[in-house]
Recover the amino acids of this structure.
């Protein structure tokens, strides 16, 4: 039997908007997430928070801590703990490479987005370095300038 050749549909569940504001993302990686049944049901309802979450490497395993997936409303005694540590699935070489990068002063692993990749739940994490206050101001200024240019172009198109 041949494998299905259709491209997988990618649907975002949640994004960590604060991460791009607080950190300068140097590299990104897509990893799988080990979940329990009721966690998947909560994710299907788009109930997850990445705001306080962070990733770390322990004993050669990539993990995420404080990712809040609320308990499933129709769950029973086998419901999951909302903020438990979850194992992330990545290749050993990638984990070793990122482990070396994290040992540098000022770098950390932050979750950027959790999404459906077909029927699988994936997490996009970033190797990040904290921004200074002047970097945040510069980013905001660039964002405002882009918005201003877009508005000007839109109004010019309408005027034509």
């Amino acid at each position: 039997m041949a494998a299905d050749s259709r491209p997988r549909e990618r649907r975002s569940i949640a994004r960590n908007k604060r991460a791009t504001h607080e950190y300068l993302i140097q590299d990104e990686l897509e990893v799988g997430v080990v979940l329990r049944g009721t966690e998947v049901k909560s994710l299907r309802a788009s109930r997850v928070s990445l705001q306080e979450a962070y990733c770390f490497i322990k004993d050669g395993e990539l993990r995420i801590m404080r990712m809040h997936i609320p308990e499933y409303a129709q769950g029973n005694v086998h419901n999951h703990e909302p903020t438990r540590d979850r194992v992330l699935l990545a290749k050993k070489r990638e984990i070793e490479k990122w482990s070396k990068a994290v040992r540098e002063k000022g770098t950390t692993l932050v979750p950027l987005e959790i999404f459906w990749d077909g029927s699988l739940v994936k997490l996009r994490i970033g190797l990040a370095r904290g921004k200074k206050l002047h970097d945040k101001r510069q980013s905001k200024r660039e964002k405002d300038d882009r918005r201003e240019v877009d508005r000007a172009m839109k109004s010019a198109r309408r005027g034509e």
The domain at 11-130 is CATH 2.40.280.10 (Small Protein B; Chain: A;).
